[in-house]
Amino acid sequence: MHEDVAPESLEWGYLNRRITVAPKKSVLELCVALSRRVPGNIVEFGVANGDSTRILRRALGRSEKRIYACDSFEGLREKFENAEIGTFACNPPRIRGVEIVKGYFEDSLTPELAARVGRVAFASLDADLYSSTSCALRWLTPLLGSGSLLLFDEFLGEKESEKRAFEDWSHETGLRTVRIAEFLREPSGWGTRIDKRPLFQVIGGDLLPKPAVPLRDRFRGGRLGGIARRARDLVFR
Length: 237
Ligand SMILES: C[S@@+](CC[C@H](N)C(=O)[O-])C[C@H]1O[C@@H](n2cnc3c(N)ncnc32)[C@H](O)[C@@H]1O
Known about the structure:
The protein is α/β, with parallel strands linked by helices.
């Protein structure tokens, strides 16, 4: 991503005097607004004292969507940039209309919880670590459908952990997503380099019903066959 950019221009100290970044509140509100038309509920991974959860709750207003907020509330299990183990440890917040799911994802993200949550319209991934983000994504996979939104809070944090987790998961599952937005942000984990919040939307899976008879057999040859093949390759690749 950064190959053609001078290294000093990625330093927050250089950039924060030159650019305006969208506040996290605006990004979360936008995601909630975009998720309104998408069937399903909202899940947040990484809650801490609930600042972001309250923003989600307020933005949701009277919608029937439910919010599930998942965190161990024991803080980070691994060092993350300049943040020590245990950073963010706190008591679970109490937020009306939000179900708090307390526990390490590895224990708390169960099939029973998946059955309760059902389809997910919007997942906010803010658990920083590669292991935690991977665990959340794997659990989420069967709950996602066309239109589901995935927001990452610090894609380029320590060794690009969220980015690597997303890329490995995309590779493993083959689930197709498009990056529909990307917002710059101050460095994560109190590092010094610019970071970003990308927003992905799932476009694979149930976007179009898979044809029972392969398109190539239905429109063998001809101009229509070529168009059908290209459309099929785009959607089901
Ligand atoms: C950056 S904080 C979340 C901040 C919050 N979203 C906000 O904006 O106010 C990251 C949180 O992820 C939680 N976390 C990280 N890995 C986890 C795991 N494997 N299981 C449960 N919680 C985890 C930590 O406890 C921490 O509270």
